[in-house]
Design brief:
The complex is a heterotrimer. In chain A, a hairpin with a 2-residue loop joins β2 and β3. By secondary structure, chain A is α+β, with helices and mostly antiparallel strands. Chain B is an alpha+beta fold. Chain B contains 15 helices and 17 strands. In chain B, strands 3-7-8-11-1-12-13-14-15 form a nine-stranded mixed beta sheet. The model of chain B has no long low-confidence stretch (mean pLDDT 93). Chain C has an eleven-stranded mixed beta sheet, sandwiched between helices. The model of chain C has no long low-confidence stretch (mean pLDDT 96). Chains in contact: A-B, A-C, B-C. β1 of chain A pairs parallel with β2 of chain B.
Chain lengths: 96, 479, 490
C-alpha cells in the first residue's frame, strides 16, 4: 500500500474536500494504483539532473508601476455568493 | 526578571512597499480606500488571471536588502504557499521559499553594555499581502472581506535569533523602521499595518547553550506591544521553567488590553504549505550592475549619519540619535548648520526649541513653520550680539507664528540688544541708586547680589541690554 | 457545400466581397447547430443574439467599403475554459455553473479585434481534466463520426463542433493533448502551439506550465490563419514569449523537399492500434514521396512521460483549483455558518470525481515528505524528456507519430479504468512537458473512425509543422471527408 485511508483523509483535509466513506475507499484504491504506476520514476537515476519548472527558458518579465482602473466594485463583487457593505461576506472566521 | 535564563528572540517583520500599484497587477496600492474599490480580476484571484511582477516592487526589495547589508541574490524565484483562508483569494500566497531576493544581512543596535551590537538578518523576501477580514458591521456569524490590500507588495525580513532582551527587540525594530523609512521604500506605519511584526522567543538556562522551546507571538500592533508582549512571555516562560514545567511549542496572540498572551487554538495539525515554484512567474536574475544602480540610489543611512554627526561634528551620542531619528529632521539640522556652523548650538535649538514647539503643536518636522535657514539666521543674531539668547527664544516663537524672518521681527519690534555702554550707564546709575543696600552687599563680598542688580537693569531695558556688558559695567561701578 | 462547412478563407472572401452577409453565415451555422446539436451536444452555451450583432457590425463595415480582417465575420466556438466577458464560462463544472467573467481572455480580445463572431462555448472535461469529454459535469459530447463514441478530450466539444459543421473553427486548450487528441478522434486539425506563443491570460488554468491554447480547424490553412490571430506576446502573461510570430500562412508552400523527419519508435509501443500505426507509417511514406527524408529514432524516456506528467499536472492543478473555495465567486454550500464546513462542502459538491481525484493526487505529491519523491522527481524526469527531444531535433526537423494510440472509443468504455484513460494521452503529453509545438491532422480511417497524425517540432518552429501538415493535406483527401449526421446516426 502506497497510501492508507488515514493519509487520504489527511490529504482531503488539506485540499478542503469532504469525502464520504465510499469516496475514501475508492480514492485510496485509485491513488494506490496510480502511485504504484508512478513508482517507475524511482527507477530512473536523476542524480545531478536539474528540474524543469518552466516549459521555456525565460527570466525577468516585469510590468511598469502604473495604475489601471479595471473593475467597479459592483463588477468585482458581481459573482460573489454573498456580500454586504461592499465586502464579500463569509461565515465568521474565528481567530485560529 | 528571568534570572538564570538566557532570552533568545528573533523577529519576523512584514513591511508593505510604497509602490504606486500592487505587486502583480495594476490596482492602486493606497491605504484607506473604500472596501473593494482597488481590486481587479487578478488580485481577486478570478479564474484565468495571471500575475506579472511589478519592477518597482522588486527594486524596492533590493533597495531594502542593500540598506540592511544583505547579499542580493543573482537568481531568485517565486513560490506558492498553499493554504485556505478567505482573505487569500487564490488559495495560495505568492511568496519566495528557497531563493529569497536577499539574505545574510545585519543591522547594529546598542547592546545592554552600551556597545554596538550586530543583529543578523537571515533573509528578506518579496511576497503579496492578503486582504483584510472585518468582523464588525455584520452579524455575529459572518465576517466581511475587503481585498484592497490583497496583492500589495510586502517584504518579510527575518532576523537571526540574536536578540537577548525585549529592550533589544524594541531597539532592533526601531532601527529597522528607521532604516527602511530612510530608503523610502515604505511608510513603515505600524498603526496602518504597513509594518507588522511577529516574534519568536525562547528561554534556556544559562548553564546550557541549547535553545529552549520556541513560542511565536502574533497580533502585535505597536512597538510598545512588542516589548510588553515579550516581557510578558519572559515572565511566563521563566515561571513555567522555574516550576519544572515545560514550555509548549505554540503560537500565542497578544491581548493588548489585558496585557497577556493567549494560546491560539490551532485546528490545523502541522502546517503543510506545499510550497512549489510558481509556474505563472518566471525567475528573476539581478546582475551586479543593476544592484549597483540601486545602491547608488540609497541615501546616507541612520547609522552612518549618526557616526558622522558624532565624529565630524562632535555631537554627543544622544544628540546624534535624536537628530537622525528621521531623515527630514537630520536634513533640517544640516540645512540649519549650513547657515550657522556651531553644531552643538544648532543641535540644542533643534532638539529643544524646535522639537518642543512641534511637539506642542502636534506637527511633524516636514510641517515645521520655521525654515532651517530662519533658525540658522536666528542663531547668527545671537552670535553677533544683535539679540540675547533670551530674546531669541521670543523671536523663535514669533517666527513660528508669523513666518517672518528673525531679522524682520527684531527690526520691527526694536529688539536689538543694547550694547552701547553710554546708553546703559545712566540706567545702571538709576538701579544702583534705587538699591543701595544690595550694592553694599556686593561690595562686602556677596557675589550673588550682582545677579539681582543685573536683573534689574535687564528689566529696565525690557531685556534688551547685553547682559555681559551690564555685568562688566556693574562690576566696574561697584569696585 | 453549405456556408457552415466552408474554409475560413473562402467564407471571409465571400463576406468581404458582399456576396454573402456575415449574418447569413451566422444563421446558416445556427441552422446547422439546430439540425445536429441534439445528437452531438458540443455546446454548453450558445450566443446567437450576440453573434448576430457581431456579424452585423462586419456587414456594416463591408457596406461602408471598409477592408475587413481575414477572420472577420467567421464564426468561432470557444472552449468553455476561455473567459468571455459577460458570457458564462463554466469549465464544464458545477462550481462555475453561473460564473460570468468580468473580462475577456487575451485570445478572445484578439479574436474580437479581428471581427470574429463568437457562437458560444463548447463542452469539455471538467476543468480540462480528461480525455473523452465524459467528465463534463453537464453531459457528454458525442463523436460526430459515431455518436456512441467519445469525441476525445478535453476539448471534445470544440473538436466535435468543428467536425460536425457547428462552427467554422474553434479554440481549445491543450495541457497534455487536449486539442490534438480530440482533433484526431474527430478527424479535424488541432494544434498546440509552442508554450508561450499564445497568451494564457483568461484561460482557466489546469496546469500552468503545460497549458496552451490552440486552434481546432477543418484544414491546415485555417489553422495557420487562426495562429496568425492568436500568437504573440501578451504583457498580461509573464510566460508569454517575447518572440514575434511569423506569418504562418507563409509556410503553406506545399514543399517538403529535404525536410528531415524522425519517427520515434516509442510512440508505436504496445497498446497502439495496428491500424493507427499503419496509417501513420503510410503518412510518413507519403511525406517521403513528396521529398522529405525519414528515419526511425528514439526518445528513450517516453515511457516515463505519463507518470511525470500526471504528477506535475495534478500538483499544479491542486494549487490552481484552490481558488474555488466559495468565497469570491462561484458556488457556495453553507453548512452551519462554519467556514471550514463551507469549504469542505462547497468543494465536495462543486467538483466531479476526476477533478477531486487529481486534486488529491496533486496535493499528495506536493505534501511534506513526498515533494522530493514525486514532484521534484517528476520535474527532473521532465528535463530528461526535454533533452530527448533536444537531441532528436539536432538530427530532425519534425517528429512524426500517432496523435492517439487508438481511434475514438465507446462512451463509458474507459471510465472505470483510469490508467487506460490516462494512456490515451501517452503520445501527446511529452510534447507539453517539453513545451514544444504539435499538430494533429487527419491521416486515415479505421472502420469509419478518423486517425490522427501528429507532427512535433522545435520550440517556436510552429511554422515548420504547418508546412509539413499542409503538404500532406494537399496530397491526401482525409480532411475532405465529413461525418454523416443527417440520418439517424449510428
Amino acid at each position: 500500500m502506497k497510501i492508507a485511508v488515514t493519509e487520504v483523509e489527511y490529504v482531503a483535509h488539506l485540499a478542503r474536500l469532504a469525502l464520504d466513506e465510499e469516496e475514501k475507499v475508492g480514492f485510496t484504491r485509485q491513488l494506490n494504483d496510480i502511485l504504484t504506476h508512478m513508482d517507475r520514476l524511482s527507477r530512473l537515476d536523476t542524480e545531478g539532473v536539474p528540474p524543469t519548472y518552466h516549459a521555456i527558458d525565460m527570466k525577468n518579465v516585469f510590468r511598469a508601476d502604473q495604475t489601471r482602473t479595471w473593475l467597479s466594485r459592483a463588477e468585482a463583487l458581481a459573482n460573489a455568493p454573498d456580500q454586504e457593505n461592499g465586502c464579500v461576506k463569509v461565515p465568521r472566521v474565528v481567530e485560529e | 526578571m528571568a534570572n538564570g535564563y538566557r532570552i533568545v528572540i528573533g523577529l519576523e517583520v512584514h513591511v508593505e512597499l510604497r509602490t504606486n500599484t500592487k505587486i502583480f497587477c495594476s490596482c492602486a496600492n493606497r491605504f484607506g480606500a473604500e472596501p473593494n474599490t482597488q481590486v481587479c480580476p487578478i488580485c481577486m484571484g478570478m479564474p484565468g488571471t495571471l500575475p506579472v511582477l511589478n519592477k518597482k516592487a522588486l527594486e524596492y526589495a533590493i533597495k531594502a536588502g542593500l540598506a540592511l547589508n544583505c547579499n542580493i541574490a543573482s537568481f531568485s524565484k517565486f513560490d506558492r504557499k498553499n493554504y485556505f483562508y478567505p482573505d487569500l483569494p487564490k488559495g495560495y500566497q505568492v511568496s519566495q521559499f528557497d531563493l529569497p531576493i536577499a539574505h545574510g544581512g545585519w543591522i547594529n543596535i546598542t547592546g545592554e553594555d552600551g556597545q554596538p551590537k550586530r543583529i543578523g538578518i537571515t533573509r528578506l523576501h518579496l511576497e503579496e499581502d492578503a486582504g483584510k477580514l472585518l468582523h464588525e458591521g455584520t452579524d455575529a456569524f459572518s465576517s466581511l472581506v475587503d481585498y484592497n490590500r490583497a496583492g500589495v507588495p510586502l517584504i518579510e525580513i527575518v532576523s537571526e535569533p540574536d536578540l537577548r532582551s525585549p529592550e533589544e527587540a524594541r531597539q532592533y525594530l526601531t532601527e529597522l523602521r528607521n532604516i527602511l523609512r530612510y530608503t523610502g521604500v515604505s511608510d513603515v506605519k505600524m498603526e496602518e499595518g504597513s509594518l507588522r511584526c511577529d516574534c519568536n522567543i525562547s528561554l534556556n538556562p544559562v548553564t546550557t547553550d541549547q535553545y529552549g522551546t520556541l513560542v511565536e507571538v502574533k497580533n502585535l500592533n505597536s512597538f510598545r506591544a512588542v516589548q510588553r508582549a515579550l516581557e510578558y512571555e519572559v515572565e511566563r516562560q521563566a515561571a513555567l521553567l522555574d516550576s519544572g514545567c515545560q514550555v509548549k511549542r505554540e503560537t500565542r496572540s497578544w491581548d493588548d488590553s489585558a496585557g497577556v498572551t493567549r494560546s491560539m487554538r490551532s485546528k490545523e495539525k502541522a502546517h503543510d504549505y506545499r510550497y512549489f515554484p510558481e509556474p505563472d512567474l518566471v525567475p528573476v536574475a539581478v546582475d551586479q550592475a543593476w544592484v549597483e544602480t540601486i545602491r547608488q540610489d540609497l541615501p546616507e543611512l541612520p547609522e552612518a549619519k549618526r557616526k558622522r554627526f558624532m565624529q565630524d561634528l562632535g555631537l554627543p551620542p544622544y544628540d546624534a540619535e535624536v537628530l537622525t531619528a528621521s531623515q527630514e529632521l537630520a536634513a533640517f539640522f544640516e540645512e540649519c548648520l549650513a547657515v550657522y556652523d556651531d553644531a552643538k548650538t544648532v543641535s540644542n535649538w533643534v532638539m529643544g526649541e524646535l522639537l518642543g514647539y512641534l511637539n506642542q503643536e502636534g506637527l511633524d518636522i516636514t510641517a515645521s513653520p520655521v525654515a532651517p535657514k530662519q533658525l540658522g539666521e536666528l542663531l547668527q543674531l545671537i552670535a553677533d550680539g544683535t539679540i540675547s539668547g533670551k530674546i531669541a527664544k521670543q523671536v523663535f516663537v514669533q517666527v513660528c507664528q508669523t513666518g517672518k524672518d528673525p531679522q524682520t521681527i527684531v527690526a520691527e519690534q526694536g529688539l536689538r540688544q543694547i550694547s552701547d555702554s553710554s546708553q546703559l550707564e545712566g540706567i545702571i546709575a538709576e538701579v544702583l541708586a534705587a538699591h543701595p543696600q544690595v550694592a553694599e552687599d556686593f561690595r562686602s563680598g556677596k557675589e550673588k547680589a550682582l545677579g539681582f542688580l543685573v536683573g534689574q537693569v535687564m528689566k529696565a531695558t525690557r531685556g534688551q541690554a547685553n547682559p555681559q556688558l551690564v555685568n562688566e559695567l556693574l562690576r566696574k561701578k561697584l569696585q | 457545400m453549405g456556408l457552415y462547412d466552408m474554409p475560413i478563407n473562402n467564407l471571409n472572401k465571400l463576406i468581404a466581397s458582399g456576396a454573402v452577409q456575415a449574418t447569413e453565415v451566422v444563421e446558416d451555422v445556427f441552422d446547422r447547430i439546430e439540425q445536429v446539436e441534439g445528437k452531438v451536444r458540443a455546446y454548453l452555451t450558445l450566443n446567437k443574439e450576440a453573434a448576430l450583432q457581431q456579424a452585423r457590425r462586419i456587414d456594416e463595415q463591408v457596406a461602408h467599403g471598409e477592408e475587413i480582417d481575414p477572420l472577420a465575420g467567421v464564426p468561432v466556438a470557444l472552449k468553455d475554459n476561455i473567459c468571455t466577458k459577460g458570457l458564462r464560462t463554466t469549465c464544464a463544472s458545477r462550481f462555475l455553473e453561473s460564473f460570468q467573467p468580468p473580462y475577456d481572455a487575451t485570445v478572445v480580445e484578439r479574436l474580437r479585434a479581428r471581427g470574429a463572431v463568437i457562437l458560444g462555448k463548447t463542452n469539455m472535461d471538467e476543468f480540462a481534466m480528461g480525455s473523452s469529454c465524459e467528465n463534463s459535469a453537464f453531459f457528454p459530447t458525442h463523436n460526430p463520426w459515431d455518436l456512441q463514441r467519445v469525441p476525445g478530450g478535453s476539448s471534445g466539444g470544440s473538436a466535435a463542433a468543428v467536425a460536425a459543421g457547428e462552427a467554422v473553427y474553434a479554440l481549445g486548450s491543450d495541457t497534455g493533448g487536449s486539442v490534438r487528441q480530440p482533433a484526431a478522434l474527430c478527424g479535424v486539425v488541432g494544434m498546440k502551439p509552442t508554450y508561450g506563443f499564445v497568451s494564457r491570460f483568461g484561460v482557466v488554468a489546469f496546469a500552468s506550465s503545460l497549458d496552451q491554447i490552440g486552434p481546432v480547424t477543418r484544414n491546415v490553412q485555417d489553422c495557420a490563419l487562426v495562429m496568425n490571430a492568436i500568437c504573440g506576446r501578451d504583457p498580461l502573461d509573464s510566460t508569454s514569449a517575447d518572440i514575434a510570430p511569423p506569418d504562418f500562412t507563409s509556410f503553406l508552400t506545399g514543399n517538403v523537399k529535404g525536410l528531415r523527419l524522425g519517427v520515434p519508435k516509442e510512440y508505436f509501443a504496445a497498446g497502439t492500434d495496428p491500424a493507427v500505426a499503419d496509417a501513420v507509417r503510410a503518412a510518413v511514406d507519403k511525406l517521403c514521396e513528396l521529398g522529405a527524408v525519414a528515419e526511425e529514432c528514439s526518445l528513450p524516456h517516453t515511457e516515463y512521460g505519463l507518470s511525470a506528467y500526471y504528477i506535475i499536472a495534478t500538483a499544479e492543478a491542486s494549487s490552481n483549483l484552490a481558488r474555488y473555495d466559495g468565497v469570491c465567486y462561484g458556488r457556495r454550500d453553507e453548512v452551519r455558518a462554519d467556514l471550514l464546513e463551507m469549504y469542505l462542502h462547497t468543494r465536495k459538491n462543486g467538483f466531479g470525481p476526476e477533478v477531486k481525484r487529481r486534486i488529491m493526487l496533486g496535493t499528495y505529491a506536493l505534501g511534506s515528505g513526498y515533494y522530493e519523491a514525486y514532484y521534484l522527481k517528476a520535474q527532473k524526469v521532465r528535463t530528461l524528456i526535454r533533452r530527448d527531444f533536444e537531441q532528436a531535433f539536432q538530427k530532425y526537423d519534425v517528429l512524426v507519430a500517432p496523435t492517439s494510440p487508438t481511434t475514438a472509443f465507446k462512451i463509458g468504455e474507459r471510465t472505470e479504468d483510469l490508467l487506460a484513460m490516462y494512456m490515451t494521452d501517452v503520445c501527446t503529453l511529452p510534447v507539453n512537458l517539453a513545451g514544444l509545438p504539435g499538430i494533429s491532422i487527419p491521416c486515415g480511417f479505421k472502420d469509419g473512425l478518423p486517425i490522427g497524425l501528429q507532427l512535433i517540432g522545435r520550440q517556436f518552429d510552429d511554422g515548420r509543422l504547418l508546412q509539413a501538415a499542409y503538404a500532406f493535406e494537399q496530397n491526401t483527401d482525409f480532411h475532405q471527408r465529413r461525418p454523416q449526421l443527417d440520418g439517424t446516426g449510428r
